[in-house]
Design brief:
Layout: H1 3-81, H2 87-168, H3 173-185, E1 191-195, E2 198-199, H4 208-216, E3 229-232
Parallel strand pairs: 1-3
Antiparallel strand pairs: 1-2
Helix pairs in contact: 1-2
Length: 236
């Protein structure tokens, strides 16, 4: 194999490894963000449930205060009965007491319904908060694991980029430029093997004379179909 081609093969293996690490490195922050989005959504649902419970509690307290006021009104109306002087005043006071008692009965029923809703909401909120705590713990655990892996990838990437710099410095600048251009056009694969008379990049047959030259490895040779740089697999 031509010495420069041998270096380019190693360079390509390194480039593919760098690309793979880079893809994994990019995917990890996205995974962390997705976990965070899920956690934030669950937090909002839990907060909404808590807010609904607080609003019901406020309504219950307000209705209870209203009921107390009406009970006080009944008490005063009953006291008023003792001091009325005419039948008309007596009937008016009795009617006022009856209407207030009827309103109180409805208010008491409403308060009981609210209390039932509060009990249900408290139980639901308890479950929501418990689930949110579990989800938070899972998020922190997975985030820490992903962060550790990300740090590891960062280190590996740095080392491989450093190695790539040393390796690429051994390639003739013109040939390195040629390699980079082919790599861009051919989805990261610029150097391919030949086997059984065919290119392993595009799988097209190679002219016999060219195939013989590839086997000798005396110069950089290219596939006439895909223009990738050749090397002979059997000569590794």
């Amino acid at each position: 194999m031509h010495p420069q081609v041998s270096i380019l093969v190693k360079l390509q293996d390194l480039d593919l490894s760098i690309e793979k690490i880079g893809e994994a490195k990019e995917s990890y922050p996205k995974r962390i963000e997705l976990l965070k989005v899920k956690l934030d959504e669950e937090r909002k649902l839990t907060d909404l449930k808590r807010e609904n419970l607080e609003n019901l509690e406020k309504k219950r307290r307000k209705d209870e205060r209203t009921l107390e006021d009406k009970m006080e009104r009944i008490k005063k109306s009953e006291e008023k009965l003792l001091s009325v002087k005419t039948n008309r005043e007596y009937q008016a006071a009795k009617r006022e007491i009856a209407l207030t008692q009827e309103a109180n009965s409805k208010k008491e029923e409403n308060i009981l319904n609210i209390l039932e809703e509060i009990d249900v909401l408290r139980e639901e909120l308890k479950k929501k908060e418990e689930y949110f705590r579990e989800l938070s713990m899972e998020f922190e655990k997975e985030k820490n694991e992903l962060t550790k892996k990300l740090d590891k990838f960062e280190k590996q990437l740095g080392e491989k980029i450093k190695t790539r710099g040393k390796l690429s410095s051994k390639v003739d600048p013109e040939r390195l430029k040629m390699y980079e251009n082919i790599k861009k056009r051919r989805h990261g694969i610029a150097v391919v093997s030949t086997k059984d008379g065919s290119c392993q990049g595009c799988y097209m047959d190679i002219p016999p004379q060219l195939y013989n030259e590839v086997q000798r490895g005396t110069d950089l040779l290219f596939c006439p179909n895909c223009n990738r740089i050749f090397y002979w697999a059997n000569n590794q």
